[in-house]
Amino acid sequence: MDTSSTETIVRGACPHDCPDTCALLVTVRDGKAVKVAGDPDHPSTHGALCAKVSRYPERTYSPDRILTPMRRVGRKGEGRFEPATWDEALADITARLKAIAARDPQRILPYSYAGTMGWVQGEGMASRFFHRLGASQLDRTICSSPGMTGLQYTLGGAVGMDVERFADSGLILIWGSNSITSNLHFWTFAQQAKRRGAKLVAIDPYRSDTALKCHQHVALMPGTDAALALGMMNVLIAEDRLDRDYIERCTLGFEALAERAAQYPPERVAQICGITADEVIGLARDYATLRPAAIRLNYGMQRTHGGANGVRAIASLPALTGAWRDPAGGMLLSASHMVPVTPSKQVRPELMPGWPGKPPRTINMVQIGDALLEADPPVEAVIVYNSNPVAVAPESDKVIAGFAREDLFTVVLEHFQTDTADYADWLLPATTQLEHFDVHKTYGHWYVLANNPAIAPLGQARPNADVFRELAARMGFDEPALRASDEDIVRDAMDWDAPQAGGVSLEQLRREGWAKMRHADAPFAQGGFPSPSGRCEFYSQRLADQGLDPLPDWVPPWESAISNPGLAARYPLALISPPARTFLNSTFVNIPGLQAQAKEPAVEIHPDDAAARGVTHGDMVEVFNDRGRFLARASVSDRARPGVPVAWGIWWHKLTQGGRNVNAVTSQALTDLGRGPTFYDCLVELRPAP
Ligand SMILES: Nc1nc2c(c(=O)[nH]1)N[C@H]1C(S)=C(S)[C@@H](COP(=O)(O)OP(=O)(O)OC[C@H]3O[C@@H](n4cnc5c(=O)[nH]c(N)nc54)[C@H](O)[C@@H]3O)O[C@H]1N2
Ligand SMILES: Nc1nc2c(c(=O)[nH]1)N[C@H]1C(S)=C(S)[C@@H](COP(=O)(O)OP(=O)(O)OC[C@H]3O[C@@H](n4cnc5c(=O)[nH]c(N)nc54)[C@H](O)[C@@H]3O)O[C@H]1N2
Ligand SMILES: [Mo]
């Protein structure tokens, strides 16, 4: 008898919604995953994982995992369930969906986001199923769509620098990003650049961990980034610090942009942004002279009314100075189109009834609160996977009231009993990344990664794709696209024969773990952007054709003293709620080791704001506006800007003292372009908790 234990290393990929998408090495001993480590050979992972994902085995084997299908027995939202079999669950769900679909399939709504970013367990089979069903389409806008739209209208797509090249930059503007929290593996390259003499500047209302480690911190007001970028242009043009040759050959609409920038002299910009004119001028001069000049823009700056215009303005800067000429110059917001993805082959919109002329209606996920309460025809069923809307969507009181509807049929595929799972009629156990196959691209580097299953599914957990494949069969959908295997979906999701893919095969990817997409060292040195003109479009004809402003501009926040003085008189504080280092949106909030580090919901307040309200460090405070209220522990610190408190995201409501997290006060208003959320465009008042 062989009593020795077996140990293997399985190649995986981190599934989370993060620009880093790390290459993983999972150690499996006797069928159990005992360790998850970063692959030392993968250049951007370089053997290091964040504190969260190193705890992936703890999360996977948590005693709180949902491991069997569960049927609701209590009142809606009470979170009381009894175990059932998969057959009972899927038979009942099929019967319910058939009955609703017979009236109008648009009364069924999928709700999903990026709990996993995988091509298979994300939207592969699930979207095919909902398209064929004729369900309402979900506009998946809760994170990046303003920025993506801004890039589309400027560069023509989500293209950007190779993250590894930031190590050679001479200036790095870290703009709207707390990289140490949300983009740790970029930060490693930024530090290499710093050691080689680069200047690092953080542009962020809050003096984040990242801002603390930069040479300079420009603490502008939230939602004023476009004004700052236009002010920098104003100076670059006035001082003739331009790359005229690059502008001539690789851009469109310079004269019009120059006129727009003329409206933003440094003094006006200083007033809008709440900084000094010297900061504007100094930033522009550094940007023109410290080369190569690189911008790491992140999504934190596009969660206000003018978010997309902000991205348009900032994305125009590297073309003005010709920063793209250098491999270590240019900018990076998202690089997801550096991978030759083929989304329509992946999710098959043509399966929708009425496609393409009259497809089913679209519901914006940001406005799920209003949709569940007011949509006409009403939403009668919602199927949630890879998301926790009750915690993460804005204006929680409405979201909760919507999910609490007794007449709403709710199915939730989950690992844990989240705030959303509490409202399920059926709670279905999903596998984690260690238990299923997938392939990932990312938005922060140029790699595609494979995730091989390391262990067998725990309990009765099933991969999302399996569940939707079986639901399709039970509904009687027999199109081949709905019977496709996981591998078929992956083959459909990318053009494997495109030159960028370098001839890599799926088999090779599974074996080696990752493959870098092939691009020229400085891909836009000669222009060649994916825009209609092939140029960087300062002036966008496509926007003009829609009757929209063809040039980037500063679009004021919905809620600010300038745009809404009446509201600002009652609620003078501009609250932002950026990601916490210990959590990934609302994922990991229930993991004891990480929860202990974060302790409890906190709000950081400038000493002047605290004193004016009789708040001292460590007090419990109530943060409120007309939409709602939540409790948080006050941390009084001058790292917060006066007038801009910071509440870290995103706690589960049920794990907070007052039963509400920060989204109790955020609004469902949308951005200028891209129909995105405005989480950081939110006026509040606060006081010591009663
Ligand atoms: N640890 C951790 N990592 C994460 C996440 C997480 O929750 N936790 N979330 C992941 C997700 S979903 C995403 S989308 C990404 C990116 O997520 P981002 O939202 O880009 O997150 P951060 O990089 O933390 O950047 C937010 C920073 O922007 C600042 N900020 C807020 N408003 C403004 C503004 O108007 N202008 C400017 N210039 N700055 C502003 C905030 O103070 C904060 O420091 O991160 C991913 N990575
Ligand atoms: N106030 C405020 N609100 C915000 C933000 C903010 O900065 N401030 N950020 C916004 C942003 S950028 C984003 S991206 C959204 C994120 O919102 P969500 O996409 O909802 O992200 P998570 O909260 O991480 O929830 C993902 C859920 O998916 C589950 N999951 C993971 N893998 C799988 C799987 O394979 N199968 C199934 N069935 N489930 C799985 C996890 O257990 C988790 O509960 O939140 C937004 N909300
Ligand atoms: Mo996000």
From TrEMBL:
Pfam family membership, one: Molydop_binding
Gene Ontology terms for molecular function: iron-sulfur cluster binding; metal ion binding; molybdopterin cofactor binding; oxidoreductase activity
Record domain 4Fe-4S Mo/W bis-MGD-type: where: 7-64
Keyword Metal-binding set for record: yes
Coiled-coil features, chain-numbered ranges: none
Superkingdom of source: Bacteria
Record's keyword terms, sorted: Iron, Iron-sulfur, Metal-binding
Keyword Iron-sulfur: yes
Alphabetized PANTHER family for the sequence: OXIDOREDUCTASE YYAE-RELATED (PTHR43742:SF6), TRIMETHYLAMINE-N-OXIDE REDUCTASE (PTHR43742)
Family indicated by similarity: Belongs to the prokaryotic molybdopterin-containing oxidoreductase family.
Record-given protein name: Molybdopterin oxidoreductase family protein
Organism: Zeimonas arvi
